[in-house]
Amino acid sequence: xxxxxxxxxxxxxxxxxxxxxxxxxxGDPHHVxxxxxxxxxxxYAKGIISRHYSVGQGIDIEIELTANHYGRFEIYKVQLPPYxxxxxxxxxxxxxxxxxxxxxxxxxxxxxxxxxxxxxxxADVAIHTSTGGAMPPLFVDQQNPYQLYYxxxxxxxxxxxxxxxxxxxxxxxxxxxxxxxxxxxxxxTNCLRYPPNxxxxxxxxxxxxxxxxxxxxKLGADVNCMDQCLxxxxxxxxxxxxxxxxx
Length: 247
Description:
Elements: E1 2-4, E2 8-9, H1 12-18, E3 51-54, E4 58-63, E5 72-73, E6 77-79, E7 86-96, E8 101-103, E9 109-111, E10 118-128, E11 149-151, E12 161-163, E13 172-173, H2 183-191, E14 203-204, E15 208-211, H3 221-229, E16 242-245
Parallel strand pairs: 1-4, 3-10
Antiparallel strand pairs: 2-10, 4-6, 5-7, 7-10, 8-9, 11-12, 13-14, 15-16
Organism: Rhamnusium bicolor
Protein name: Chitin-binding type-4 domain-containing protein
């Protein structure tokens, strides 16, 4: 499974007013001189192969959305081309939001009828032949030679060495420890470090939020809670309006 994360969100005024709705291949503003920073030859294009696949393989793409801006994703389950192999291919995904206010085709105005904000990212992958022949290169079975691993002492050996995947953005103490000075900073620092040190009886790292009380069910209330509470620092998170938890 390939986990895709947001790298670039192009500001509305740049995408629509300056570039007539166009974006760079990997999310850079279209007007930026080539090679753009996130494209081949650019500043951030390091050529690290994040996954190795076989020709024609069906792959799952996991999307982690921390702030739901409605709209649609283009990529969920992908069927790779049956006749293409490559040592470095670019896998692209797009997220077109649906929370912008604007004019609808029927002449009214509403949320979702505005010009979409575009989030875009790319990943470098390799696709290898599945036909018989000589032994495949040793690196084919390696998902990512640059992957970080850590030892989880809560699991029995040899199943306690696992890839490090940090999904959270903010970690806070649970109800028993939240009033103790310094614990909030301790959770934020230690849960998101390498290797992680995040005891579940002390800290929690919420992944979603929903509106509560009089705000529950109101349009955009859940999104506002995630925007305010799932970022560091979460000082602006209205505890009387939002409830956050780990899924």
